[in-house]
Write a structure and sequence with these properties.
The protein has about 220 residues and is of the alpha/beta class. It has eleven helices and five strands. It folds into two domains: about 140 residues, Rossmann fold (3-Layer(aba) Sandwich); about 70 residues, Winged helix-like DNA-binding domain superfamily/Winged helix DNA-binding domain (Arc Repressor Mutant, subunit A, Orthogonal Bundle), CATH 1.10.10. A five-stranded parallel sheet has the order 2-1-3-4-5, with helices on both faces. The two termini are about 35 Å apart.
């Protein structure tokens, strides 16, 4: 299986924009796809339908409000395997649909991050409600990404040593303790700390700690 065509286009994803949210559908049943396409369009959203997982994976990723309606049973990969392959697409919540539900599968897909698991035949209003909820989550994820991206870029500008100093400082270590752990002088720690504050545009230690929390650095340090 080749997923390269999807990843090769991800760098272009941010350049794409869409006036209406996109609902992707991956379902091996022809009539099911057609019905879903009409339902999605009737709600004012864009519909893109695919007969199999590989067909969907060949479609370039788009960072736009979206969700994926995914059948468990597909002609190539199954829906659970496809869910794993797109797990990093936080802007695209997954709604599972199936003709044959079982508790084990339901628990598995929900634990893996799916927002809903619906059994066919599905009432239109129930499915539209699930899609609406998923698109709201997609919008929230995209807003968060837009807010956090400049912070990630500032953190990426830090040198390896500056990241080490920042990690120890935000975990509550004093300059002397940081120096002892890294094998450098307290004056050198102060210089690195000053550059970290400048590059991160933090006006206080509390501000720097907040930035580290938003970047999930504090959780990795605790782990």
């Amino acid at each position: 299986m080749n997923t390269g065509s999807a990843s090769s286009h991800e760098s272009k994803a941010s350049a794409n924009s869409h006036a209406a949210p996109i609902v992707f559908v991956v379902d091996g049943d022809d009539s099911g796809r057609q019905s879903l396409e009409l339902l999605i369009q009737s709600a004012g959203w864009q519909a893109e339908v695919f007969a199999c997982a590989q067909e969907f994976l060949s479609r370039p990723r788009v960072l736009a409000p979206s969700c994926l309606v995914l059948d468990v049973t597909l002609p190539d990969l199954n829906g659970l395997d496809l869910q794993k392959l797109v797990a990093d697409r936080i802007e695209m919540p997954v709604i599972f649909i199936t003709a044959h539900a079982d508790v084990r599968t339901t628990v598995r897909v929900l634990k893996a991050g799916a927002v809903d698991f619906l059994t066919k035949p599905i009432h239109n209003e129930l499915l539209l409600g699930a899609m609406r909820h998923a698109i709201e989550r997609s919008n929230a994820a995209l807003r968060h990404e837009a807010q956090i991206r400049p912070l990630r870029e500032r953190y990426a500008s830090l040198s390896r040593r500056e990241r080490e100093v920042m990690g120890l400082v935000v975990s509550g270590r004093l300059n002397k303790e940081v120096g002892g752990e890294l094998g450098i002088s307290e004056i050198t720690v102060q210089a690195h700390r000053g550059r970290v504050m400048q590059k991160m545009r933090a006006d206080s230690l509390a501000g720097l700690v907040n930035m580290a929390a938003r970047l999930s650095l504090t959780r990795s340090l605790q782990g």
